[in-house]
DNA sequence: GTCTATAGAATGATAGAC
DNA sequence: GTCTATCATTCTATAGAC
């Protein structure tokens, strides 16, 4: 009896993760209201009542999914530093953002949905964590401009262009695929997209792309 | 009695338009499932049953909203022609897309929502009208590249970048506003955004922006 | 054409047995 | 911890009076 809590130490977290994975996919495809806890439970392979045992409400589950996505964004957020070469820093950031769009398209969609609907759940994150990160990166870009290392533009619009363009390949993957004769991007298509995005943005701010594109 | 159908000749269309305007706003804010016909009817100032008199089902109303948005997109679609100067043509297209993002943010959001969820309603439009338009514009851009008038990139990625970036200011307006200290963009901010977007993209493909930016 | 009242279906959440 | 049965609510759509 007393050792019952020593068995299957990670079962609880494994099950929660399975539910979160299912929820990310279902929320991305159907939206918060369009997704039902029944769909998520079915996709996770558990009864609906069991889902409610791990996540008491639909909103608590959704909130966790959105926060997980936000953490993934932030992992790519430390790509550039004031002391780095701007071309390498921006290229590395674009590389990481494109990789995330390919690896986590559903997370990107849930985030986009949340923001488009006025960010009812993650407004605090926008105002604190994202605001602080954005402000600090704008300062880095501005310092590069002040030092004459890149063209003069408002840093915020450069950041928005990078976010919008890289996330387009996740959020609008259905449209991109339809225009690609119904075929999903293969390795070569992803590499070509990443190359062209980096080329246009770097050349756009006066940074010529050489052989070193900040790959990691 | 017999002249009853001569009175208020446009009342029906005016009422349908009021419902469509309300529907665009509510669908943009809450998504297809999140929006209720009751909310739309309230916002349009009519009883719910009256809404169902003009639009028999929620889906029929939504479909009309999406098609209206698509028509707006296409109005900006004839901005560039093979015989035009590429810098002027692309600048004009970006100008128009930015104006639409400012004038019709809700339409852009409904479109984004629809595509993100797999385009269940407008898949036919993607495969026919959008595919044909995109193919023809890719050919125009490719001809400019072949003539050495701009840098070599895959035209589709240039188009996606223009779409993604211009629509970001509509779809993510809540995030943009939060990062703008909670203030919506004023005239100057919109002009600055449009200027920087054009600057980066045109310079990015080797087209220097002069005084003539294709404004209309 | 308009509107009240309601039917009919779907869904989030829980009680309670195991 | 797990799962069946079910409650309570919400929403689309319509019947039928005016």
UniProtKB/TrEMBL annotation, chains A, B:
InterPro entries: Homeodomain-like_sf (IPR009057), HTH-type_TetR-like_transc_reg (IPR050109), HTH_TetR (IPR001647), Tet_transcr_reg_TetR-rel_C_sf (IPR036271), Tscrpt_reg_YcdC_C (IPR013573). Residues 13-73 form the HTH tetR-type domain. It comes from Maritalea porphyrae. The keyword Transmembrane helix does not apply. Keywords: DNA-binding. Residues 36-55 bind DNA. Transmembrane segments: none annotated. This is TetR family transcriptional regulator.
């Amino acid at each position: 009896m007393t050792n019952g809590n020593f068995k299957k130490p990670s079962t609880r977290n494994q099950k929660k993760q399975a539910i979160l994975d299912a929820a990310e996919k279902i929320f991305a495809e159907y939206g918060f209201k369009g997704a039902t806890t029944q769909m998520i439970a079915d996709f996770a392979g558990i009864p609906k009542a069991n889902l409610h045992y791990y996540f008491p409400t639909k909103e608590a589950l959704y909130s966790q999914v959105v926060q997980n996505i936000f953490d993934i964004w932030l992992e790519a957020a430390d790509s550039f530093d004031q002391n780095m070469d701007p071309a390498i820093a921006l290229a590395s950031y674009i590389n990481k953002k494109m990789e995330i769009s390919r690896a986590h398209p559903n997370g990107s969609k849930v985030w986009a949905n949340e923001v488009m609907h006025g960010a009812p759940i993650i407004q605090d994150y926008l105002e604190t964590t994202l605001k602080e990160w954005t402000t600090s990166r704008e300062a880095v870009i501005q310092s590069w401009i002040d030092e004459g290392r890149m063209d003069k533009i408002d840093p915020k619009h450069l950041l928005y262009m990078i976010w919008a363009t890289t996330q387009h390949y996740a959020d609008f993957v259905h449209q991109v695929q339809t225009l690609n004769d119904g075929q999903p991007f293969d390795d070569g298509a992803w590499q070509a997209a990443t190359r062209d995005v980096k080329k246009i943005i770097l050349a756009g701010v006066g940074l010529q792309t050489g052989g070193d594109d900040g790959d990691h």
